[in-house]
């Protein structure tokens, strides 16, 4: 079965461009389009796409609220729907909010066609497309500017072991499993186990959400380097 995709953007020309790119791929099917968040939510529930390509800045309900609503509904109904955020990167600070809401990553609006297709394939398989190093840079830049993070209570991390907290800290700094293994002098298999435990215990979808969670809980702070 082809990967079904819903295109969400308030600019018709962009939707047309993405559609032309994706429809040239036999394993991808564009099942619909939406011009704002309200349409995105309604279309997702009706069409049940595998992947939603979501713009951030739209009139009415924006991409952040739409992402949050779609993924809550997806979770409640047991459906596997993934969201990829579209951003201009230099302007869309609130892409971090979309990652927090459960988006599987973000794409630049001028993404090359092959990268767009590749990202949709990866996300449809249940993985995140944003490298933790890129997510960390984004959070370093914008985390302190997000008002919604300042008044949130800090989630408890007591159910993580000290080693799992250490793995989360290194993961949030952008290290790969192999790099974490070398740092901790353990096998890569052991690191994979720790990462899996962290995601399970904190009820996180993937490594991208783990990076966001690490910033929210103070495990790592903006500007903290990889040392």
From TrEMBL:
<dbReference type="InterPro" id="IPR011006">
    <property type="entry name" value="CheY-like_superfamily"/>
</dbReference>
<feature type="domain" description="Response regulatory">
    <location>
        <begin position="4"/>
        <end position="124"/>
    </location>
</feature>
<dbReference type="InterPro" id="IPR001789">
    <property type="entry name" value="Sig_transdc_resp-reg_receiver"/>
</dbReference>
<keyword id="KW-0238">DNA-binding</keyword>
<dbReference type="InterPro" id="IPR039420">
    <property type="entry name" value="WalR-like"/>
</dbReference>
<dbReference type="Pfam" id="PF00196">
    <property type="entry name" value="GerE"/>
</dbReference>
<dbReference type="InterPro" id="IPR016032">
    <property type="entry name" value="Sig_transdc_resp-reg_C-effctor"/>
</dbReference>
<protein>
    <submittedName>
        <fullName>DNA-binding response regulator</fullName>
    </submittedName>
</protein>
<dbReference type="GO" id="GO:0006355">
    <property type="term" value="P:regulation of DNA-templated transcription"/>
</dbReference>
<keyword id="KW-0597">Phosphoprotein</keyword>
<feature type="modified residue" description="4-aspartylphosphate">
    <location>
        <position position="55"/>
    </location>
</feature>
<keyword id="KW-0804">Transcription</keyword>
<dbReference type="GO" id="GO:0000160">
    <property type="term" value="P:phosphorelay signal transduction system"/>
</dbReference>
<dbReference type="InterPro" id="IPR058245">
    <property type="entry name" value="NreC/VraR/RcsB-like_REC"/>
</dbReference>
<dbReference type="InterPro" id="IPR000792">
    <property type="entry name" value="Tscrpt_reg_LuxR_C"/>
</dbReference>
<keyword id="KW-0805">Transcription regulation</keyword>
<dbReference type="Pfam" id="PF00072">
    <property type="entry name" value="Response_reg"/>
</dbReference>
<dbReference type="GO" id="GO:0003677">
    <property type="term" value="F:DNA binding"/>
</dbReference>
<feature type="domain" description="HTH luxR-type">
    <location>
        <begin position="153"/>
        <end position="218"/>
    </location>
</feature>
């Amino acid at each position: 079965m082809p990967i079904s995709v819903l295109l969400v953007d308030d600019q018709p020309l962009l939707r047309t461009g993405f559609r032309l790119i994706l429809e040239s791929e036999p394993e991808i099917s564009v099942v619909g389009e939406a011009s704002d968040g309200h349409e995105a939510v309604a279309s997702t529930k009706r069409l049940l796409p595998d992947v939603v390509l979501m713009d951030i800045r739209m009139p009415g309900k924006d991409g952040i609220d739409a992402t949050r609503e779609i993924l809550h509904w997806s979770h409640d109904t047991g459906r596997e729907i993934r969201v990829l955020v579209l951003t201009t990167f230099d302007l869309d600070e609130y892409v971090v909010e979309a990652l927090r809401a459960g988006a599987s990553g973000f794409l630049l609006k001028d993404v090359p066609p092959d990268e767009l297709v590749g990202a949709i394939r990866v996300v449809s398989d249940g993985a995140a497309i944003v490298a933790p190093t890129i997510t960390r840079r984004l959070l370093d830049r914008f985390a302190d500017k997000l008002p919604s993070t300042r008044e949130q209570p800090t989630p408890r991390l007591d159910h993580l072991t000290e080693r799992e907290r250490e793995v989360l800290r290194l993961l949030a700094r952008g290290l790969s499993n192999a790099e974490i293994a070398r740092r901790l002098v353990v096998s890569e298999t052991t690191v994979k186990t720790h990462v899996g435990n962290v995601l399970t215990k904190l009820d996180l979808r993937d490594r991208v959400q783990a990076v966001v969670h690490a910033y929210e809980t103070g495990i790592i702070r903006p500007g903290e380097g990889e040392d």
